[in-house]
């Protein structure tokens, strides 16, 4: 199991993301992709290979643990985030499902007070206890994978009783990380995978990163060298998809 954690103290101290430049260089995009798609800070097994879903992603949202007065708004936000990700990532088939049994990505919406118990129930008490003591997170995601690094199941735990901005920011980041890019990086200022930055939106830079990860030529299990070569080869097509350019446009 690999975990992604956003500490509450990091979120409190984080700044709004800087404006994106008119155009990112290939080097800026590829550097960010390799930083988040490989490695993981909280992993129970080696993880320096590409990991991703290799089929449709179906998202079930369980908000029974959320305060009743917040539940409709939080459900609507998660639904909106899933739809936004689906629109923003070519070749990724992601959608909500009303059936828990058919889901391979489950989102649990709980209170801040009950979040530690929810995290412990999902990820194991011993591991969760150490992580929660050190980081005091507002949101957590984790995923399990097979020997080929294909994601089998993913879980996201979100605290409902935070500000609307914090909830949406957490939901976008953790759902994206549950899709595979679970490694945080402090080296890239435009990505929401940087704990020092808050975006509240699925911005263009992160669409490039997810577009690379879910391009048909990228596969679970690729090594760093293989992933780098594949990313360089498909980047023009990913740019075209994200920017709405015709294939063969400027790169």
TrEMBL record:
It comes from the Bacteria. It holds the Pfam family DUF2927. InterPro entries: DUF2927 (IPR021323). This is DUF2927 domain-containing protein.
């Amino acid at each position: 199991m690999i975990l992604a954690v956003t500490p509450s103290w990091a979120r409190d101290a984080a700044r709004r993301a800087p404006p994106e430049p008119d155009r990112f260089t290939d080097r800026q995009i590829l550097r960010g992709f390799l930083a988040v798609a490989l490695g993981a800070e909280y992993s129970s097994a080696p993880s320096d290979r590409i990991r991703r879903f290799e089929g449709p992603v179906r998202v079930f949202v369980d908000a029974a643990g959320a305060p009743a007065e917040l539940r409709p708004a939080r459900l609507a936000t998660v639904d909106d985030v899933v739809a936004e990700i689906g629109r923003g990532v070519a070749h990724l088939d992601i959608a909500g499902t009303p059936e828990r049994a058919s889901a391979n990505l489950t989102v649990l919406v709980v209170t801040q007070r009950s979040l530690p118990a929810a995290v412990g129930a999902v990820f194991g008490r011993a591991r969760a206890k150490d992580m929660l003591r050190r980081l005091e997170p507002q949101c957590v995601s984790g995923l399990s994978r097979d020997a080929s690094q294909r994601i089998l199941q993913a879980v996201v735990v979100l605290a409902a009783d935070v500000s609307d901005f914090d909830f949406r920011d957490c939901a976008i980041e953790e759902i994206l990380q549950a899709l595979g890019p679970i490694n945080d990086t402090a080296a890239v200022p435009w990505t929401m995978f940087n704990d020092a930055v808050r975006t509240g939106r699925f911005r263009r830079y992160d669409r490039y990163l997810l577009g690379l990860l879910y391009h048909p030529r990228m596969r679970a299990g690729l090594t760093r060298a293989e992933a780098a070569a594949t990313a360089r080869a498909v980047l023009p097509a990913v740019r075209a998809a994200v920017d709405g350019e015709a294939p063969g446009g400027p790169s």
